[in-house]
Amino acid sequence: MQKRPFARPLLLWIAGIIVGTKVPVCETFIIGCLVFVVFLLLVSLFSPYESYDFRFYWGFIWSGLCFALAVIYAAYCLHVGFVSFAWKSLLVEWASAWQELIVDKIYLLEVETDVKSVLAALVIGFKKYMPFAIRHDYASAGVAHVLAVSGFHVAIVASFISKFLSFLPNTDAGRILRLVLSVGIVWVFVCITGLAASSVRAGIMFTMYALAHAIAVNTDKYNVLYATAFLMLVYNPLYLYDVGFQLSFLAVLSIMLFYTPVRNLIVLRNPIVGYFWDIMAVTFAAQVGTQGLCLYYFKEFSLVFLFSTIPAIFLSTVLIPLCLLWLCLPVDLLLSLYIQRGIEWLAGIFVDVVEICAGMDLLIFPTELSAGMTFLYYLMVLCFFLYIRRRRGFV
Question: Which end of the chain is flanked by fewer CB atoms within 10 Å, N or C?
Answer without folding.
Answer: N
